[in-house]
Amino acid sequence: MDVIEVIVAKRDGQELSEAQIAWVIDAYTRGEVADEQMSALAMAILLNGMNRTEIASWTQAMIRSGERMDWSALDRPTADKHSTGGVGDKITLPLAPLVAACGAYVPQLSGRGLGHTGGTLDKLESIPGWKASLSNEEMLSVLRSAGAVVCAAGSGLAPADKKLYALRDVTGTVESIPLIASSIMSKKIAEGTGSLVLDVKVGSGAFMKTPERARELAETMVALGTDAGVRTVALLTAMDRPLGRAVGNALEVEESVEVLAGGGPADVVELTVRLAREMLEAAEISGPDPADALADGSAMDAWRRMITAQGGDPDAVLPQAAESMTLQAEEPGVLARLDAYAVGLAAWRLGAGRARKEDPVSFGAGITLHTKPGDEVRAGQPLMTLHADETARFERALEALRGGYEVGPASAQEALPLVMDRITAQ
Ligand code: URA
Description:
single chain; alpha/beta; Transferase, Pyrimidine Nucleoside Phosphorylase, Chain A, domain 3; Aldehyde Oxidoreductase, domain 3; 13 strands; binds uracil
């Protein structure tokens, strides 16, 4: 097989055969196809797309590049959730133990944040002692003792995707629906979950800015999962404003614990419970209601077991940033708009996120939102508090927030409904 022929075929808008795709993914993983050749192919795919058959072959080839995990030794169904990422999206933290408390096993491989959206592993690593890297045997043991495990994907899982994602990141080829869908689903299928709920975010703080693009991504991923034998459903959910009131690693852990204690912001609770119900339905578990498991403390018990089993101390004091500053409303009115991207970018500049994947994050940095869109405010009332380890970070964070929120006399701008749509296999 000749890599130039494959690149030229896609450049000219032709369909790639299963054999061409299998060969190019395998040869790239082994280093036989060079980065510059794969980046040309990725750009041709971004510009000319791939049809459903090509995307399925691409995904299967990436799965075959590494190991496929197997949870058949477990005596209950497995269920997982994947979010395409958003600002203040800490849902995995309360959701995984909640679903475990309702009777499913939740084996979740998660990632670190890059850019303005946070990563689940960064959030959990703000808990003293908690470790993200587990062997497969350790994962199984945490699952057996706690019902849920959230950890880093090992290097053996879809190595082709690891290499290709890093390349796409530096070649302007991330924003291709076929490449995003196959990247996410190759990892989720290789992870071995029996059922999967996808939370596809829509809005300024999300990868997908419009409902049309989000729906296309969701439909593509649901079809890939279903064809691979994983019961898969997707929700399209709002990411035009941040989720909850906390943005930043330790701040989001604190908010998640509030939810597990039966409190927490209404939008975080609503989405957690809705996703939990979807996961249980996909796993064919009927009976337990996730809202009851939050109220009766059983989800909190599962959280404590899960954190402890991974070396963390659920009672430890979480890291706090050394410096803070509070923004106040200059005039009375209504918080008419609070843009998710502006808040995510500001939190990132405060130190909550990283610019390069090897950078450290500040666990205490981030933003606490005292008001949410639609809230009435008085002049001088605190709108949000910024947290950072150095005061020097405030200026650039404030720049990111400029124009990102608006207090005015008018009523709040029409917000997207929290759950916008539900996509199932066609
Ligand atoms: N997340 C992934 O895992 N892959 C992508 O391509 C985009 C987001």
